[in-house]
Design goal:
This protein is α/β, with parallel strands linked by helices. It has one domain (14-190): 3-Layer(aba) Sandwich (Rossmann fold), CATH 3.40.50. 48% of the residues lie in helices and 13% in strands. The protein has ten helices and five strands; from the N terminus they run E-H-E-H-E-H-H-E-H-H-H-H-H-E-H. It has a five-stranded mixed beta sheet with strand order 2-1-3-4-5, sandwiched between helices. Strand 1 (14-20), helix 1 (21-35) and strand 2 form a beta-alpha-beta unit.
């Protein structure tokens, strides 16, 4: 007769991805599937939000035993003093909290996408300039839901070498005029595979 395994298997902690916009939502949904990341990416955790709304979601999810990764664009905070102060406060509040990871990008998440292809730190004035630069590498890129819901754009961009390069480049340019902390999210998610 076979022996029963009486040992208990350690269950992995849940990781929620919270953020603004459909670009971030679809990117992480596709990446989750492609890289077999263990995380929760749900439409209710995303939306056209501001820093205050993102913090509300953090507080809501904090009651669960889960890690929270917040992804959003910091461009509004550069144009709006109130949002800039909220962003600084949010970063300060969770700086030493290992359960909450703030991953903002300036101008926008498309800068993170560019880093998959080239090592630059441009001083784009707005997200439109960043998207135009990205189109040098992904000519058909479009911020419409119809485009984003298809996974091919993430598949092409996130081959292992490109993703590794993007993480290294983002860390290198973390204090630049343009920056992204999404490499920290990738590092955390890599721990789940």
């Amino acid at each position: 007769m076979a022996r029963k395994n009486t040992g208990t298997k350690k269950q992995k902690k849940s990781i929620y991805i919270v953020g603004e916009g459909i670009t971030e939502q679809y990117y992480f949904q596709h990446l989750k599937r492609l890289k077999d990341f263990t995380c929760i990416v749900k439409p209710r955790l995303f939306g056209n939000t501001n820093v205050w709304e993102i913090e509300k979601k953090i507080i809501e999810l904090s009651s669960e035993d889960a890690d929270i990764i917040c992804v959003f664009d910091a461009d509004v905070s550069k144009r709006n003093q109130t949002e800039n102060e909220r962003l600084r406060n949010l970063k300060d509040k969770y700086a030493d909290n290992n359960k909450v990871l703030i991953c903002d990008s300036l101008q926008c998440i498309e800068y993170w996408f560019i880093l998959h292809y080239e090592n630059i730190c441009p001083a784009h004035n707005n997200g439109d300039e960043t998207v135009r630069r990205l189109k040098r590498h992904i000519p058909d890129y479009d911020k419409s839901e119809r485009y984003l819901e298809k996974s091919q754009w993430v598949e092409r961009m996130s081959v292992e070498e490109n993703l590794t390069n993007a993480c290294q480049r983002a860390e290198l340019h973390e204090d630049g005029l343009s920056y992204t902390n999404i490499y920290k999210a990738i590092d955390r998610l890599n721990e789940t595979t």
